Amino acid sequence: MLAEDLLLLYYDDDTGKPVLDSTKVDYSLAGAVLVELSMRGKVGVAGDGERVRSGRLIVRDPEPTGDTVLDSALRVVRDKEGGKPKDVLGKLRKGLRESVLQRLADSGRLRRTDHRVLGLFPTPRWPVADPGRKTHVRGRLREVLIDGHEPDESVVGLIALLAAVDAVPKFVPSDDKRATKRRAKEIAEGQWAGHAVRKAVQEVQAAVTGAVAAAGVAASNGGG
Question: What GO annotations for molecular function exist for this entry (predicted)?
Answer without folding.
Answer: phosphatidylinositol-4-phosphate binding
